[in-house]
Write a structure and sequence with these properties.
Layout: E1 10-15, H1 21-29, E2 38-43, H2 54-61, H3 100-117, E3 121-126, H4 133-144, E4 150-157, H5 161-170, E5 180-184, H6 190-201, H7 208-218, H8 222-235, H9 238-242, H10 247-252, H11 257-268, H12 272-284, H13 290-297, H14 301-313, E6 318-321, E7 324-326, H15 330-337, H16 342-358, H17 365-374, H18 380-393, H19 397-408, H20 415-428, H21 436-448, H22 453-470, H23 473-486, H24 491-501, H25 515-528, H26 533-549, H27 554-560, H28 569-589, H29 592-609, H30 615-628, H31 635-641, H32 647-663, H33 667-684, H34 687-703, H35 707-724, H36 730-743, H37 747-760, H38 767-783, H39 787-803, H40 807-820, H41 826-843, H42 846-859, H43 875-883
Parallel strand pairs: 1-4, 1-5, 2-3, 3-4
Antiparallel strand pairs: 6-7
Helix pairs in contact: 6-7, 6-8, 11-15, 12-13, 12-14, 12-15, 13-14, 13-16, 16-17, 17-18, 18-19, 19-20, 20-21, 20-22, 21-22, 22-23, 23-24, 24-25, 24-26, 25-26, 26-27, 26-28, 28-29, 28-30, 29-30, 30-32, 31-32, 32-33, 32-34, 33-34, 34-35, 34-36, 35-36, 36-37, 36-38, 37-38, 38-39, 39-40, 40-41, 41-42
């Protein structure tokens, strides 16, 4: 737009087909800044004998009838042959000159004069790579003295090499004037693809896996992105693009016809040798050098070189890097691959595999496995297993799991190899992706294979952990208990199953209250005699986290007993997991500074271990910490992008998202998110999560003035908390339960809950829960009419939350304090409300900001001294109205 602000601008827009040139100029033509200009649009067409001035004539044709204000100068009569529909309005055609050059020059002058007569004009000429010589010469003539008020926008394709180069040479004169500029459009980045998909689907919940696959498949070409998104939406549905995507699913979808047919048209215009080279590139699947393409195509180098040049000239293939040739994007590669006959494909894959095997160890093992599989060679499973091992060693558990799942789907796999790979899959799939595929494979192996007891126990322990991440707490706990028995001769693994069973409040329906202590003691005693440092780290780190989650101050001493990691990556990764658990526990207690320190250590160890899959778990912990500390800038965007298919990850991230939506006043959206999160929490069977989410849902109902619904939301979690005697998770649950009970007129029940909460926190190190307890006591005092006592309790809560610091909860307590202070110090109450409002406003908690704003408006505004209220209620009157 900046380039067109000049009244005589010339703008060249270059880029490959589908990059968005036409879309860009169409948007420009609709821009408000150009509303006072006439818009002319013409297009050059591919033709062996193009019509002279074709695009210019087409553009003028969009004017319709000849403008009535047009000057009827004799020169315009030269346009009669070009514009016969204007013949009645044009002067007679001048006598033709003998010199062809003079005749052409007259036409140039006449066209220029006509454009001047049209007034302020934006003239768009598209696809100049197909322009006729006359049009190109006229544009060069026009650029030497651009008419005032005429803006030219000229688009051309850069991939049509011969024509584009000719066009650029012919239009070189256009770049000389100060008013000329050139815009080179590039394919979209992955971030741009995400934004385009989000707009097209009208949702920000787009799977990162889908975006990655889509960007690779389309090369970032906007046209291709739109066609693929439309195709996926029609054939698979929105859910696949938002709630978890797999590249394997993408491979099952056909290439959209709008992408396939033009490419196959280009392919059909090539010689047989060029088609063989293009087919070889499709079989290789990645950019390849000329020798490899010749070998796979089965052609001698000179013949293959000619075919390659032809394919490059036709833009079927491109030089992706120096000396490396391939397709513009993966969909183009697939479209060509599907045209190759089966026997030729198999021979091609055999040749690629043979050449890659010769290039070992430089050649990627996973590629060899892929080509051997496509060639029907049984050796592919050995290479795939080796590739999975390499991926795990490099920290890419996601790739390792995908490779192993692929191999384990192969029929007639040797028994020993199958058992070995199932065990490897159990480790690889744990933290990397949706665990459901691996769960099925492990369950099938346990049901069908006759296994040694220790091997069965190891497999069952892996299954237990995967079930836990999938959110199936009951099945996870049952498998863990069985694994402990089967691993009695492999205590290094057995203690890790025990420590999982020692988690407090894990699946309360199955585990008896307090038996986590027994499992913890048993794990510690068993680990004491072990030399496996990974097992020691796991047990001691989880022991410290468990003690701290109970509010036991000895947990801090237990932290100091955790051994440090050596240079062994597995130890560093296990220690990173331990510190992540400690960070989450410290955050729940209210020790935010320590949580941040633990998370920093976990990040550092993660970086040193180079495990790519663990990072999303650390990111989830960082998100929770940022929410609590009031660091909300950019948080919603991060949470919208989270589409992790692992329930254990989705629970934490989506709880924060629901809480953020509620604070912003987007209550209906928050209801949908939090209800879904509660379903995950209930299935996961973690009491702390159930209590936290139930409390937030109760807060939502209280916001809607639905006290009975709020009470119903907390009753189940409150029963479990009482049953297990685990009151620290009540920091989010109990205050909302007390408010709901009071709103329902059950003051005695509210008092009982507060008494139990206080007893449960006795001698517990839990500053967040103590701040919540102060809020509960304030609510009781307020309900009893003891406003001064209530204000003091809310002041303690404000200070307690502030020390953590949790500015949002502190501001909520400050608001409650202000409403209880109206009798004693009206000025102070107003200052407190304004202070809370500033905090909410700074956080972006717009729902809370509006609520306080409404209260301040109802109470009137004052600037010092005793407040006058006019026709509005005074604070005392408002209080009486509330009580009434």
């Amino acid at each position: 737009m900046e380039a067109l602000r000049n009244p005589s601008a010339i703008v060249l827009v270059g880029g490959e087909s589908g990059v968005g040139k036409s879309r860009l100029v169409a948007e420009l033509a609709q821009a408000p800044d150009l509303a006072d200009r006439r818009v002319l649009v013409g297009r050059c067409h591919p033709s062996s004998q193009p019509f002279p001035f074709g695009a210019v004539v087409e553009a003028l044709g969009t004017v319709g009838e000849a403008p009535r204000g047009m000057t009827l100068r004799p020169l315009l009569g030269a346009l009669r042959p070009l514009l016969p529909e204007w013949a009645e309005r044009l002067p007679p055609e001048p006598a033709r000159t003998a010199a062809a050059g003079a005749q052409r020059h007259r036409l140039f002058r006449a066209l220029r004069a006509l454009l001047v007569d049209l007034g302020p004009t934006l003239c768009v000429l598209e696809d100049l790579q197909w322009a006729d010589e006359e049009t190109l010469e006229f544009l060069a003539f026009l650029s030497s003295s651009p008419p005032a008020g005429l803006a030219l926008v000229l688009t051309y394709r850069t991939e049509d090499r011969f024509r584009a180069h000719r066009t650029c040479r012919s239009l070189g004169e256009l770049l000389r004037p100060e008013t000329a500029s050139i815009i080179a459009l590039e394919p979209l980045s992955a971030a741009d693809v995400r934004e385009l998909v989000a707009v097209r689907l009208d949702t920000q919940e787009v799977s990162e896996d889908f975006v990655t696959w889509l960007h690779r498949s389309t090369g970032g070409m906007p046209f291709a992105v739109e066609r693929v998104v439309d195709d996926v939406l029609e054939k698979v549905g929105l859910g696949a693009m938002t709630r978890g995507w797999s590249a394997a699913l993408g491979e099952t979808l056909p290439v959209p016809a709008a992408i396939r047919e033009p490419l196959l048209g280009q392919l059909g215009g090539l010689s047989e040798m060029a088609r063989h080279v293009a087919g070889a590139a499709a079989i290789v699947g990645e950019p390849a050098e000329e020798g490899l393409l010749a070998e796979v195509a089965g052609l001698r180098r000179p013949i293959a070189a000619g075919g390659l040049v032809e394919a490059l000239t036709a833009d079927v293939l491109r030089e992706r890097a120096e000396g490396m040739y391939g397709f513009r994007h993966a969909l183009a590669c697939r479209a060509v691959y599907e045209t190759i006959s089966g026997p030729r494909r198999r021979r091609g894959h055999e040749r690629v595999a043979r050449m890659l095997e010769k290039a070992r160890p430089a050649a990627p093992v996973a590629e060899i496995a892929h080509h051997l599989k496509r060639a029907g060679d049984d050796r592919w499973t050995q290479y795939a297993e080796a590739a999975a091992s390499e991926a795990s060693a490099a920290g890419d558990d996601r790739l390792a799991a995908r490779l192993l799942e692929d191999v384990l789907s192969a029929p007639e796999l040797p028994r020993a190899a199958r058992i070995r790979m199932v065990l490897a899959l159990g480790d690889a799939a744990l933290y990397c992706a949706a665990p459901f595929g691996a769960i099925g494979i492990l369950q099938e192996a346990l049901a069908e294979e006759t296994l040694p007891t220790g091997v069965r126990g190891e497999m069952r322990f892996s299954l237990s952990r995967l079930l836990g991440h999938s959110g199936d707490a009951a099945a996870s706990r049952a498998e863990a208990v069985r694994a402990v028995t089967e691993l009695r001769r492999r205590p290094a693994l057995g203690v890790r199953a025990m420590i999982n069973l020692a988690q407090p409040g894990w699946n309360g329906e199955e585990g008896a209250p307090g038996d986590h202590r027994a499992w913890l003691d048993r794990a510690v005693q068993t680990a004491a005699g072990q030399t496996d440092r990974v097992a020691q780290i796991a047990v001691l780190a989880q022991r410290a986290a468990i003690l701290l989650s109970l509010g036991d101050p000895s947990g801090w001493a237990a932290v100091r007993e955790i051994p440090g990691a050596s240079d062994v990556p597995a130890e560093k990764l296990q220690l990173s997991r331990g510190y992540r658990s400690l960070a989450g526990t410290s955050l729940g207690l209210g020790h935010y500074a320590r949580a941040c320190a633990f998370l920093g250590q976990a990040d550092l160890l993660h970086d040193q271990s180079s495990n790519r899959s663990w990072g999303v778990w650390l990111a989830e912990a960082r998100t929770a910490l940022d929410w609590c500390r009031g660091r909300w800038d950019g948080l919603e965007g991060r949470l919208r992008r989270d589409t992790a298919p692992i329930p254990a990850l989705a629970l934490g991230n989506q709880f924060v998202r629901g809480s953020l939506l509620l604070a912003e006043g987007r209550v209906d959206e928050a209801d949908l998110v939090l209800t879904a999160v509660l379903e995950i929490a209930l299935r996961a069977g973690d009491l702390s999560q159930i209590a936290t989410v139930s409390g937030r849902i109760a807060r939502l109902h209280l916001h809607r003035h639905e006290p009975q619904a709020a009470l119903g939301a907390v009753q189940g979690a409150l029963t479990q908390v009482r049953c297990h005697g685990l009151w620290i998770p009540g920091r989010t649950l109990v205050p909302e339960a007390v408010q709901a009970l009071l709103a329902c007129g059950e003051r005695n029940s509210a008092r009982e809950v507060v008494t139990e909460f206080a007893l449960g926190l006795r001698r517990r190190d839990a500053p967040a829960a103590r701040a919540a307890l102060a809020c509960c006591r304030g609510a009781l005092a307020e309900a009893d009419g003891r406003q001064a006592d209530a204000a003091r309790h809310f002041a303690r809560a404000d200070a307690g939350w502030g020390r953590l610091p949790n500015p949002y909860e502190a501001a909520r307590a400050r608001e409650r304090r202000a409403l209880c202070s109206v009798d004693s110090d009206e000025g102070s109450a107003g200052d407190l409300l304004l202070s809370a409002r500033r905090t909410f406003d700074g956080l972006g908690a717009h729902g809370d900001t509006r609520r306080i704003g409404a209260r301040l408006k109802a109470q009137g505004a004052w600037r010092g001294g005793r407040k006058g209220y006019g026709e509005a209620l005074s604070p005392r009157e408002a209080q009486v109205a509330r009580l009434a």
